[in-house]
Design a protein that fits this description.
alpha/beta, four-stranded mixed sheet
Length: 482
């Protein structure tokens, strides 16, 4: 954002803090009351409107968004206090959040979705899911650093959305926009903030940027990539051509060991059209002249044409019921490797990139939702039951379905917690079912053999008769030989 705009927001923030203190009955100053503070608000809002030539209503809306940001910060502080001291008043629970159980030995979480399905997910994936409207409630069994990092990440995401909207509102009415940036350049961001639908091509591009950013966030949070990924605000996106930046600390050895926070800005695109890429390269070249304003060492254009993969992963994710892990859970290892190589090659050696891919692949789990506890028990019973089935029935869906029905009937009975008795009943029922299956199969085989023998006999009889009627097996008149 512009330095002047940042200063104005800080002024708004200080006034808002005083308003909140006064509303709570805390003394701000002996001669300050709410009425005087409202006058101060009106002064700052009117002054900013007059200086920039924008509508007073617009600055008023920006001020209201700043109040929303202040509320986000207050809720964050309350949650952090509760994590440090559970005896303090419990903070408001995250809306529609899924309880996450931590497995310390494997360093993963188990999450039950709204359909009762259980998923395994890493901490990095949980943070990445914030973008896709999924929230998690980390219990006291989770590491404190995870609990704190997660609530901070949620707050930062909300604050960034409010900030982007504030920037858009002001920039769309300012007459001193840099680089001949048209006001309509900010319209897609406003529409997205207000929940309006974007044109398909714009939506795919936005989804691609978000997925790549979230995927890299997952890598850094899970310790696969030793770097930090920072989201650019809307002003940096439009004016400085930065979608996000990647920062890596390098230790410089000399007389004193120093830490260099090297950062590279990324302009990401999925287009393969050379005419569009040419224009983007020129814009990036011009934007590089102002890198000192955004504290970056370099700015690179990264083109990875994965539009079809983005669309397919979104469709699969929606069809699966929006499970934990976001659309990225449906990416192939090939796509993940392409992103790692294409985006991180300017900060990491080839050996390090190869190591990242190997670490990611080894940590990858089956992305389809795993079964519920009851379903897992059923699968285990069927696995044991298959020892009693002939091999040709192992893939018989009807048999497996009947096995599940038998299991359900057994589970519905009251065995008063006697697991061995329940297992014995299940195996006994399965054994009876298998015997019936074998008897039925034997009968079918015998009938088939009898039919074959009868058919052969009839054909032989036809070839040796002189036209007499051929009786049927039941003794009734049969066909006449022609």
């Amino acid at each position: 954002m512009r330095p002047g705009f940042e200063s104005a927001l800080r002024q708004y923030g200080e006034v808002i803090k005083d308003i909140h203190k006064t509303e709570k009955g805390e003394l701000v100053a002996p001669d300050v009351d709410l009425q005087k503070l409202e006058t101060v608000v009106d002064y700052y809002v009117s002054k900013r409107s007059s200086e920039l030539g924008v509508k007073r209503e617009t600055q008023g809306r920006i001020f209201d968004l700043q109040k929303e940001k202040q509320m986000v910060i207050e809720r964050l502080k309350a949650r952090l206090r509760y994590i440090d001291d559970p005896h303090t008043p419990e903070a408001e629970q995250l809306k529609d959040s899924m309880a996450a159980r931590y497995d310390k030995q494997r360093n993963v979480y188990s999450v039950k979705d709204t359909h009762g399905r259980i998923h395994e997910i890493t901490f990095g994936e949980m943070v990445a899911d914030i973008t896709w409207g999924l929230s998690y409630q980390l219990g006291e069994d989770a590491p404190r650093v995870h609990r704190k990092t997660y609530v901070v990440a949620r707050a930062k995401r909300a604050l960034m959305e409010y900030l982007d909207m504030q920037i858009c509102l002001e920039e769309m009415e300012r007459h001193d926009r840099t680089g001949n940036i048209p006001s309509f350049a900010y319209e897609p961001f406003v529409k997205r903030f207000e929940g309006e639908e974007l044109p398909e091509q714009n939506m795919i591009g936005w989804q691609a940027e978000e997925m790549v950013y979230d995927f890299l966030t997952r890598l850094t949070m899970d310790g696969i990539a030793s770097a930090e990924v920072r989201k650019a605000d809307v002003y940096q996106d439009i004016n400085n051509k930065i979608d996000f930046s990647i920062h890596r600390q390098n230790y410089l050895r000399g007389v004193d060991t120093q830490i260099s926070d090297r950062g590279i800005g990324i302009q990401f695109t999925i287009t393969r059209r050379e005419d569009i890429l040419k224009k983007k390269r020129e814009k990036v070249r011009l934007a590089k002249k102002h890198l000192e304003e955004v504290f970056l060492d370099d700015l690179v254009l990264v083109s990875i044409p994965i539009g079809s993969e983005i669309v397919q992963s979104m469709q699969k994710w929606e069809k699966a019921g929006r499970p934990p892990g976001g659309p990225m859970r449906f990416w192939s290892q090939e796509v993940k490797g392409t992103i790692i190589q294409g985006v991180l090659q300017n900060l990491f050696s080839q050996e390090e990139l190869t190591h990242m891919q190997a670490a990611l692949e080894s940590s990858s789990r089956k992305k389809e939702p795993v079964l519920s506890k009851k379903e897992r028990e059923a699968e285990e019973r069927i696995r044991l039951m298959r020892r009693y089935l002939p091999p040709e029935l192992h893939s018989n869906e009807a048999v497996l379905k009947r096995a599940l029905e038998i299991l359900k009937d057994i589970q519905d009975q009251d065995f008063k917690g006697d697991v061995q008795k329940q297992d014995k009943a299940f195996i006994g029922a399965i054994a009876r079912f298998v015997r019936r299956q074998r008897t039925e199969k034997k009968r079918q085989e015998e009938d088939s053999a009898n039919d074959l023998i009868t058919s052969l006999c009839e054909n032989a009889f036809l070839s040796h008769t002189d036209g007499a009627d051929i009786p049927k097996r039941d003794g009734s008149p049969g066909l006449k030989k022609s």
